[in-house]
Design goal:
alpha+beta, Ctag/Cox11 (Pfam 04442), five-stranded mixed beta sheet, 2 helices
Length: 195
């Protein structure tokens, strides 16, 4: 039995809507993957090991810190800049402090500027890979281990870079489930003690 023109139009329309929905759903993870692989938009690369080669040429790395408007932590780089040889593994620290009377969980976003450096700035280990929970009054120093890929000196844009800025922005997230349960138990205990 053949479909009439009206039913064919409905089937085509539903197919288009489903296809567009699937593409919209896949666009965010695809864009994230694309940025991580290419360094597009200042997204840094990730590696488990350092560079194979260290050059005599140096580059200045600047460190920047900010936080989302409602994030109660204090957050700053321990040192504002360092000069390292291209390919050398660098280690920098950021400091976070929770001045409140309750635990606060945070996660950071990051990028590098200029954006052309994103494909050459590689992190080996970073506090930004996981969420952070600071207890009331806790102050921590959080490390980031990185290198600048020696291929930067061969890149048409990268070879003119003398400085890269690594920026982090911390924002508050929900406490992990276990922390939230502990806080609820503490609140219940203190209410019981007050009564």
């Amino acid at each position: 039995m053949a479909m009439d023109a009206k039913n064919k139009t409905v089937v085509k329309l539903v197919s288009v809507v489903l296809t567009m929905g699937a593409l919209a759903w896949a666009s965010v993870p695809f864009y994230d993957w694309f940025c991580r692989v290419t360094g597009f938009g200042g997204t840094t690369l990730v590696s488990e090991v350092g560079a194979d080669e260290v050059l005599d040429k140096t580059i200045k790395i600047r460190f920047d810190a900010s936080k989302e408007r409602d994030m109660p932590w204090e957050f700053k780089p321990v040192q504002r800049e360092m000069e390292i040889r291209i390919g050398e593994t660098g280690l920098a620290f950021y400091e976070a402090y929770n001045p409140t009377d309750k635990p606060i969980a945070g996660q950071s976003t990051y990028n590098v500027a200029p954006y052309a450096a994103g494909g050459f700035f590689t992190k080996i280990d970073c506090f930004c890979f996981t969420e952070q929970v600071l207890q009331p009054g806790e102050r921590v120093q959080m490390p980031v281990t990185f290198y600048v890929d020696p291929e930067i000196v061969e890149d048409s844009e990268g070879k003119y870079l003398h400085q890269i800025t690594l920026s982090y922005t911390f924002y508050e997230i929900d406490l992990p489930e276990e922390e939230a349960r502990q806080q609820a138990a503490l609140a219940t205990d203190s209410e019981t003690n007050l009564n």
